[in-house]
Design brief:
The protein is mostly helical. 56% of the residues lie in helices and 6% in strands. It is elongated, with a radius of gyration of 19 Å.
Amino acid sequence: MAFSLSYSKSILVLAFISDKIRRGETEYISTKIMSEALNIPKPTLAVIFNNLIRAGILESKEGINGGVRFAKSAEKITLLDILIAIENQKSLFQTSFELGAKSKRPDDLKKAVINALGNVEEVMKTALNQITLKEILDAE
């Protein structure tokens, strides 16, 4: 009942890319370099990259000097943007279930649980939308 580890790894991948570019080491970061430095298997990175590229957070370039880089600035990328890119709008709480008891009270309780968990998830998404990648990168 939690988001995948790829979400946390994606934030670290973006921080790694930012630091490499900020230090002027390279414009595009290769999968090989990141895989070795962050100890993330290449297939996992490929999935992360594809999701972040599809969301418009990263862009890629093929070839000898290829790799990935930011498609937009860290100030314009929120933790919610990254979450949506990686988790594809998957809910934090699974609320699709059928009750064996068929009466008003169980149905009302089920609705209350679904509403409460939906509200909690919305609060979390609102909070994630208020934190930019830049804020993470500027943390000491």
